[in-house]
Amino acid sequence: MEQFGNLQAVLWDMDGVLLDSQAAHFIAFREVLAKYDFQVLDSVFKPTFGMTNEQVIRHVSGERFTDEEVETICREKDEQFRVVIAKEAVFMAGVEHWLTEFKKNGVRQALASSGSRENIYTILDALKARPYFDAVVSGEDCASKPDPAVFLRAAGQLDVDSSACLVIEDSIAGIQAAAAAGMKCLAVTTTYPREKLPQTDLILTGLNGLTAEMLAALFRV
């Protein structure tokens, strides 16, 4: 691990980091909401990326749906999402390389996502990515980002101090959660342009631009 300074663990977000799942989420929401005679535009949906299903529905529909209807829509949306993403999941550029490099060099890895556990494992299986991860924390396990709980829980499962963790994120809420957890953060501009992201430790267009030297500089001993 010396080539990465004192980096001991990488905590990966999933949607927008491991893979581009935004279109699959939108398709699933659009198809399910259409059954309830409700249309949602892509321009309205895009700012919700990174939110929980319930937060998305409340954001786009206000008080239109009852709590019971929201619960049903969330369940149906996830079922449809899993059908779509199982056929279309591919790693984003540079991701598989770094998953392999970190594992080869003894850096522990966790997936820390606001998604449901079933969604997470559907995607990991589609990508054949389970062997890379030593821990998985889902939105069902703790409070949603920007609460830091998902990252703190992941670090705890890996038994690594926050100061030795790198979070890889694409969302505003995720970057805020990493900061609140006291962790360094690499943000990728796959969902939001650089100017809309909060200030953080490192911002790249994608992981194919990441180098060992950048990591060593972030985690200089």
UniProtKB/TrEMBL annotation:
Keywords: Carbohydrate metabolism, Hydrolase, Magnesium, Metal-binding. This is HAD superfamily hydrolase (TIGR01509 family)/HAD superfamily hydrolase (TIGR01549 family). Its cofactor is Mg(2+). GO terms for molecular function: hydrolase activity; metal ion binding. Belongs to the HAD-like hydrolase superfamily. CbbY/CbbZ/Gph/YieH family. InterPro entries: Beta-PGM-like (IPR051600), HAD-like_sf (IPR036412), HAD-SF_hydro_IA (IPR006439), HAD_2 (IPR041492), HAD_sf (IPR023214), PGP-like_dom2 (IPR023198). It comes from Pelolinea submarina.
